[in-house]
Amino acid sequence: MRNDTSGHPPPISSHAIALVACGLAVAVCLPLRDVLDLTNIAMLLLLTVVFIAARLGRSEAVLASFVSVALFDFFFVPPHLSFLVSDVQYLVTFAVMLAVSLFISHLTTSLQASAREASAREAHSLALYALARNLAGAISPEQAVQRVTTFVREQADGEPAFFLPDADGQLHEFPAGTATLGLDESLVLDAVYRSQASDPSCSTSGPSGLTLLFPLDGATRRHGVLLVRDCSRDGLDPLRPMFEAVASVTAIALERLRLVEQAQASRMETEAERLRSSILSSISHDIRTPLTVLFGLADTLALADARLSGEQRDTARAIRDQAGRLHEMVEKLLDMARLQAGQVRLRKEWQAIDEVIGASIQLLGEALREHPVKVSLQPDLPLIAMDAVLMERVFCNLLENAAKYSPAGSPVTIDVKTDDEGGFAIEVCDRGEGFAAGSLARIFELFERGAPQLPSPGVGLGLAICRAVIDAHGGQINASNRADGGACVRIALPCGGEPPGIDPEPADPTEGGS
Amino acid sequence: MNAHPVRILVVEDELQIRHFIRQTLERAEYQVIEAATVQQALDDAVSGKPDLVILDLGLPDGDGVDFVRAVRDWSRMPVLILSARSDENEKVNALDAGADDYLTKPFSVGELLARVRALLRRAEGGDAGAAVVRFGDVEVDLARRTVLRAGAPVHLTAREYRLLVVLLGNAGKVMTHRQLLREVWGPAYVDSTHYLRIYVGHLRQKLEADPTQPMHLRTEIGVGYRFQA
After folding, report:
1. Which residues, numbered 359 to 398 in chain A, qualify as contacts with chain B under a Cβ-Cβ cut-off of 8 Å?
2. What residues 171-200 of chain B have any CB closer than 8 A to a CB of chain A?
3. Is B14 in CB contact (< 8 Å) with chain A?
4. Cβ contacts (< 8 Å) between B197 and chain A: which residues?
């Protein structure tokens, strides 16, 4: 049959067309009955079956197979116009003809089916590719999800919903909305999200039909779950691979958007950090300038000429000392502000701890005049990775406190040992009154003072700074009172890895010394 | 005193601080030139022929470090930096660029004058040429390369001796970690500060009365070391 009918005609009419085609074939062959061999007529009828299989489908071809064999018998095998067969060997012809035409119909139709499937798959791939390209241009998760939703509706007749985790790892529909989940659905949803299996996608069937769930796995983590409700006639299960691909491109898009967001946040953070530090340094500059002048002028007066009386000179000295103290306090406040403003940036280097302790003692100078500092170090202490400038502040604050809160002449001791983990255990102790009872738990808080009853000046910043610095180093600091009197502050400082080695010295014949 | 008065260029953008420094210096009979910007300072450094520069690092039209670099292209005149305590980085940069010493604000008049005098003395070569340097109970004979402590010979390795000589040669001056590492170990080692910690530790063990509270081989935390006779 040559005249093509379009698409997939309804089964009834296509069967009729198959019958008509067989009839036409017979009508064409009938005048030729005396010219052509019976074999060739059988061939023509077979050809008709092939066409029917190719054009109309399997059941039409099977029908045509039987009909054409019957028509062949009726019209062409003698005796004509009768189903009787004169020669028994024609039964073999019928059997072979039927078998061949059934086989051909089968081959032809399955070939057609796989061709159709291939082209459908190609269409899906093209659509997926278009989706991926589309997603690459999405500028927000909402937009990305919207594009995927459109795709799924168009391509698969399914109703997708996206569930993304919040900060606590709880899944919520995204964008917040409309999908109502059955109990089993929400259980499965959670299970899919939390599953550690390599392919946790799964399906569940509820009252509204089949639901497919796919994890949105990005390169770094799982970004949520894609849920697709089946609305189509043929079922979505065959489309599983396509949905897996959709889930994958969605995850990649969400991940990209998240990274962009993170980059932006970190740029904002850096910006804010920069602003904060520039505000801090301009404040510290503005405060330091008048203090420097005040300190310097008072100092000039105190040192200078004999024109001043002893009393006036003392006043000048007092102004200078108070300006110095005020400056110390301002520095501490600024230190604390810096330490609290965002993350502390440590400039870690391999340091000898005795050097930092020595420099702190040297820096305090006058303040320690009445307190001998005894430093005992375990022999052969290794280098330790720390920020020497900040650690110097820690030791200065601790020594200053020790000197401030213990009677003149009493010693301050610093002990340094390695602890079991290779870090350092540092102890700074004095022989004073110790911390006030009950205050031990709070003294590292900002503006807490360990000995509030004492008239010594201070605002309770020193120990808070110590804790901030030690925390930044990943260490621990705590305070206690010694049984025999005096306050102790203990610091545990992690070693921060293996200290680097040094090259051995080349043998040098002209070495110094003798 | 010298035949001509010693001239000092004070570069500081804060008028009050500049005045107070001028007052102090003039009282000590130094001549003072004032500049408030890097550009003005550079002009004055050429035309005023100062013997020493006192330089604030935070200037309105540029970094004090740029000034130090520019001056070091043509002059060895001593440069004393004024800085805030929390600006270790800036200090180190200025010192690496060739500044000689620094003073942390606020500073006392006595400290300022002591630093100025020390720098001027060094610049005149007052300390140079001595073949024997003594500090504490230690005696270093640079010509014969021997080190005695309380009269007894002290054994130093080649590097320890070299480090000591570099520090002695820059007595009173802060040497940054980079400068010391470059001079003693070579340019490839400028970031290997742990060498310094270990070797300075050795020197202190051998030469200081109390190695944990050194009197002569001083630590400038975050900056470098200074030898103090």
Report:
1. 359-363, 373, 375, 377, 383, 388-389, 392
2. 192-195, 197-198, 200
3. yes
4. 350-352, 355, 383
Q: Which domain holds residue B58?
A: 7-123
Whether residue B98 is found in the same domain as residue B145:
no
Q: What is the CATH number of the domain that holds B153?
A: 1.10.10.10
**Residues in B 79-138 with any Cβ partner in A closer than 8 A:** 84-86, 88, 105-110
Domain count across chain B: 2
Distances (CA, A) of A205 to A157, A184, A226, A236: 17, 9, 16, 12
Distance in angstroms (rounded) separating the CA atoms of residues A60 and A457: 105
Residue A40's pLDDT is 87
Find chain B residues with C-beta within 8 A of A356's C-beta.
219, 221
**pLDDT tens string A297-351:** 888 888 776 677 888 888 888 888 888 888 888 888 888 887 877 666 788 889 9
Residue by residue, DSSP assigns A179-209 as ----HHHHHHHHHHHH--SS---EEEEETTE
Digit-coded pLDDT (tens) for B3-45: 578 999 999 988 888 988 998 899 888 999 999 888 888 899 8
* DSSP state, residue A341: S
CB-facing half-sphere around the CA of A338: CA atoms within 13 A: 21
pTM check: above 0.80: no
What distance in Å separates residue B152's CA from the closest CA in chain A?
10
| Structural domains in chain A plus CATH codes | 11-120 (no CATH), 139-260 (3.30.450.40), 263-340 (1.10.287), 349-493 (3.30.565.10)
Nearest-CA neighbor of A104 among A67, A39, A52? A52
Which of residues B1 and A112 earns the better pLDDT score?
A112
